Structures are given as structure tokens and as C-alpha cells.
Amino acid sequence: MNTASPTPLGLKKSFGFGDRLGLATPGHLAAARKFDFAPIFAQQSIREMERTQRTPQDVIQAATTALRNLGYTNAWGADADHLKLPEHVERTAAAGFCFFTIDPSEYVGKGALTPELEAAYLGRKFEIPGLGMLQFDRGTLQGAAVKYGRSLEHCGFMGTHIAKVMGKRPFEIEVSVDETEDPTSALEHLFIGLELRRHKVPNVVSIAPRFVGDFEKGIDYKGDLKKFEASLRDHVAIAKHCGPYKISVHSGSDKFTAYPIIGRVCGELLHVKTAGTSYLEALRVVARTSTPLFNEIVEFCRGRFATDRHSYHISTTEAQVRSLPKFSGPKEEAVFLDEVPGRQLLHVTFGSVLTNPTLKPKILEALQRHASLHEELLDRHLTKHLSLLTKG
Ligand SMILES: [Zn+2]
User: What is the CA(251)–ligand 1 centre distance, in A?
Assistant: First the structure.
């Protein structure tokens, strides 16, 4: 098998190890080796690449080089995450990405109920094993069509474009609607799954719904776990019926109380994406090895928080961030790296830190100097993720 380049992973359950700094693969691989998840070692959205000033080539190269040096010989994937435009496909495909996550969120809420949709759905009954019978009335069809109809047309367009760009190279596709305001209902998911087929989106291996409850960045699940489990069961039943395809869990970092449920309910039909959690482990290396640098990062982030928090789904407030103490040494590690306000402060500001011309090189240098600690912390933390996912 050619291990130098990433390959599609198909319907095998999988885990995305996002690496924003390009130095995390050794720690990620150490964790991945202990479990039977197909690993995605290169995973970055266009937005994240902009926020870290990395190119698609940089992202693939970092993973490829590390895996070669570590003698890794099994399959691994590369996820070009949250692609919104056709040019994003070209740029990431040219670098070697082969898993394309289509993000049609620009078009959410902009659809309409058309005679074509009425003909396709009204009066039809859908028997979903494990869930029961679903059908659309005019109201629910109109709701789904307005919310997702135009988005799914865009997925059709992007899917055709991906197939054309990839030509004879194998590829796979995910569709993500995780960033909507309201949760994706069972009926809406059915509409999405059926429309992807009707628009002939090729090689769909996963769909990322917006789940019930809150998937805030870098912290545990917030919400009613019973409701979450019930709706996840419905999503899996629909994924089996319309695909089969996997259920993709975005913002998967640190959703520890939900993980056993996710692992148990999804079984093999599961993909989980993480990224922020590994960045925070990199900062933990700094907290343990350089008090002045970590303090410099904290104060810089505090100044950026009001601005940077806007594009993220988090509950930490400016007042909470102001009341965090100064970082005076490793005894305060937990305040910034284990408790919610500190984690979210450091999480949402990663783009500002990683485009700062003095901070970024200092962080990279610290990680290179303490490579074994970095690997150990990542291994420990991602092992916790993967073991909870297999515990259910
Ligand atoms: Zn997402």
C-alpha cells in the first residue's frame, strides 16, 4: 500500500485529528495505534488555513512527513473541511486531499418549496427500519425545503465539481450542516439524505447534522443526554436508510460525557472531528515549560477575546475572561487548560495567536524543544477521546 499519500477511508469508523501547528502527528498516531478507528491525520478547513496562514500543501506535507518518519504503513485520510466554493476544491485537491467536506451553509434558509419537490415528496411514505414511518405534509416539506433545499442544490453542484476535478483519483464526500441555528430534525435529515441522492452527489460517506444540545468549542457536551441519544438514534437509522453513510460529529473535541453514547449508537457509522483540543495540548506544553511565554499568550488572547469570540459558538463571557488570574506558573495550568472559561479564551483566539509574528515562532520552538512532552500529552488526551468512544 502507498502510505505516502492519503486515501479515502470509506465506511470504516474514523476519527479526525486536526493539527493546526503541523507538529501533532506523532502524538496523534501514538493514540490512533491503540484503536480501530481509521485515522484522518490531515484535516483543516479553509477558514482554519487562513487563520493559521497555512496552505493546503503545508497541511498535507506536515502529516505525510511525520508519518513517513514514524514508519506508518496503514491507510490514512485527509479531510478538506468546510469547503464553500469550487476554488476551495481545486486548491485542496491539488495538494492531495481526497476527503471533501461540503459546507453549503451560505444557502441555508434560502430555499423554497417547488413543484418538483412537491412531486418528489408529498404523499410518499418512508419506512425507516428502527425509526418507523416518516412522511412529509405540506408544512414540514415547506420547512425542510426553505431551510435546506437550496443548500442541497449547491451540494449537487459541488459534488459534480469535485468529481470533475478528481477525475480518476478516488475521493469521498461529507456534507456538513452542523453550523445551523436549530438542530436537524429526523424529517429534515431524511430530506437531506434523499435530496443528496436526487442531486446525485457522488461518494457521500458522511453527513454532519446539527445535534440537539450544545457542541461548544473545546469543552464537554451541554444538554440533555437522553434527548441527544434519542435523536442520534434517529439520525443513525436515517443514515442507514439513505446511505448507508456515517454520522459525522463536528466540534467533537472533549465531548466526553456524550462519547460513550455516540460510540454505542453509531457503531461503525461514525466519524468524529477534533482540532481545537490538540491546539490546547500544545499550549499545555508551553504552560509547563515556559511561564513567561504562556503568560504572554494569555494576555494577548485576553486582548483579542471580544473580537475573536464572534465567529464561535461559546458561552464564556468577556467578564469571565477579565476575571481570570494572571498566569504565574504551572500551578495555574488547570485554570486555563482544564476549566471552561480559560479553554474557550485560548480556543477562539488561536487564529490571532497563530498569525502573530512573535508568538507563533516561539510556540513552534517550544514544541520542537519539548517534542516528547508534546507527544505524550497528545497521546494521553486523544487516547481519552478514543477510549470513551469505544466504551459505550
Ligand atoms: Zn463543522
Answer: 6
Helices and strands (DSSP H and E) totals, the chain: 18, 10
- Is 81 part of the annotated catalytic residue set? yes
pLDDT tens by residue, 298-315: 999 999 999 999 988 899
Cβ distance 269 to 236 under 8 Å? yes
Rounded distance from Cα 134 to ligand 1 centre (Å): 27
**Cell numbers that stand for 269 in this block:** 457509522
CA distance 225 to 257: 8
CA of 136 to the centre of ligand 1 (A): 27
DSSP per position, 185-223 = PHHHHHHHHHHHHHTT-TTEEEEEPPPSSB--TTS--BS
Question: What's the pTM?
Answer: 0.96
DSSP H or E run through 95: helix 86-95
Question: Domains in the chain and their CATH numbers?
Answer: 14-277 (3.20.20.70), 278-382 (no CATH)
What are the tens digits of pLDDT across the range 313-365? 899 999 999 999 999 999 999 999 999 999 999 999 999 999 999 999 999 99
Q: Average per-residue pLDDT in the chain? A: 96
- Spot the catalytic one: 48, 81, 172, 216: 81
**Residue 372 CB contacts under 8 Å (≥ 6 apart), including other chains:** none
Question: What is the spatial distance between Cα 324 and Cα 331, in angstroms, rounded to a whole number?
Answer: 14
